[in-house]
Specification:
The chain is globular. Helix content is 41%, strand content 23%. The chain has 15 helices and 17 strands. With 385 residues, it is an alpha/beta fold. The protein starts with 8 loop residues before the first strand and ends with a helix. It has two domains: 251 residues, Aldolase class I (TIM Barrel, Alpha-Beta Barrel), CATH 3.20.20; 71 residues, Winged helix-like DNA-binding domain superfamily/Winged helix DNA-binding domain (Arc Repressor Mutant, subunit A).
């Protein structure tokens, strides 16, 4: 009998540096006006990788994701050393997915072939818009032409390609978005991440919005944008498999599916989060956010974790619910209820079923309907109560 495939195990590597900070972004990203000493930071990454490997014996990596920040500011040689080390520490499954987030700026795109040679086989481009005026508003450093050229190059270099777009932007109409999506479909990416612009606290956009200088669509118009997005992506063979992610069948982002299916993954780098499975518990790890402070911690203690604690079953259940509801496939109720220590409240579930916001199949797999996705947070709160 053939040996069963090992359980998925992923690695997230956070590169926190950006050439500029986008005004809508609340990610852990930092601008440095002097070149980053990659050789020094590489020492810290390798040190933290080796520490995490001692916590995860016997695993084999099924996916690696370089996120940021802007990982395409990394030298291909840096990526190559990191991937060589991960192969030594854990081993790579034969069909491992290795994704690198990249900006479409020309300087970043010049590194694409080097990343491919290092082992990256999937790239995710932060395009955000195909209109120069909107790119300036969003604080992006690339032009629409650079975005188009980067997509074309990435499609030639990498086996798999995804790119991001932001919709419900200031002054954007539904017809504008429809035309932009049609342009995106023409580039034949097998995966699209389509995000509604949200005003995040403590960002420049939040300050502008508060003063009335940045107006975004109201809730009704935002819902129309969402509905249009779903209809067009379905029609072009890229249906949503997660709230904001669309793919041709088989081209789903395996690393992100690992998160949403509540699998095990390690997080490396400043501000990275991880979920490591120990003998008796699942551990939540969080690294120091500030890059230089993280570096100092790693050099002193072998890792940059500022939180490393076992989750209680109720916390695990809440995370499983929130992550699983994001997926079109939903989540299986029995493992959720086992962690929760009790059955889901039947009266609350019946109400959601009657209002057409969720479905439950014969195997007790719970999933949101098209009407349920826009109010996912409220449904999760109701089910977790």
């Amino acid at each position: 009998m053939a040996e069963a495939d090992p359980a998925p195990f992923g690695l997230y590597i956070h590169w926190p540096f950006c050439a500029a900070k986008c005004p809508y972004c609340d990610f852990n990203s930092h601008v440095r006006h002097k070149p980053v000493n990659q050789a020094e930071f590489l020492k810290a990454y390798l040190t933290e990788l080796r520490f995490v490997a001692t916590r995860t014996p016997g695993r084999t990596l099924s996916s690696i994701f370089f996120g940021g920040g802007t990982p395409s500011l990394m030298d291909p040689a840096t990526v190559d050393v990191l991937l060589s080390e991960t192969a030594k520490l854990w081993g790579h499954q034969p069909d491992i997915e290795i994704t690198l987030e990249a900006n479409p700026a020309s300087a970043d795109a010049r590194n694409f072939r080097g990343y491919r040679s290092a082992g990256v086989n999937r790239v995710s481009l932060g395009v955000q818009s195909f209109h120069d005026d909107d790119l300036k508003t969003l604080g992006r450093l690339h032009s629409a032409r650079e975005a188009q050229e980067a997509i074309t190059l990435a499609r030639d270099v990498f086996p798999r390609l995804s790119f991001d777009l932001i919709y419900a932007r200031p002054n954007q109409s539904l017809s504008d978005w429809e035309q932009e999506l049609e342009q995106a479909f023409a580039y034949a990416a097998d995966h699209l991440s389509l995000y509604q612009l949200t005003i995040e606290p403590e960002t420049p956009f939040a300050a502008l919005h508060k003063r009335g200088r940045l107006v975004v669509p109201d809730n009704d118009l935002a819902a129309d944008f969402y509905d249009l997005t779903q209809a067009l992506t379905r029609a072009h063979g890229l249906p949503a498999y997660e709230i904001s992610n669309h793919a041709r069948p088989g081209a789903e982002a395996r690393h992100n599916l690992l998160y949403w299916r509540y699998g095990e993954y390690a997080g490396i780098g400043a501000g990275a989060h991880g979920r490591l499975v120990g003998a008796n518990a699942r551990y939540a790890t969080i690294a120091e956010r500030h890059p230089e402070s993280w570096f100092k911690l790693v050099m002193e203690q072998g890792h940059g974790f500022i939180e490393d604690r076992p989750l209680v079953p109720e916390e695990e259940a809440d995370e499983m619910l929130i992550m699983g509801l994001r997926l079109k496939e939903g989540l299986s109720l029995p493992p959720y209820e086992q962690l929760r220590g009790r059955l889901i409240d039947q009266s609350r579930l019946e109400t959601l079923l009657e209002t057409g916001l969720v479905t439950v199949d014969d195997n007790r797999r719970l999933s949101l309907t098209a009407d349920g996705f826009p109010v996912m947070d409220a449904i999760a709160a109701e089910l977790a109560a």
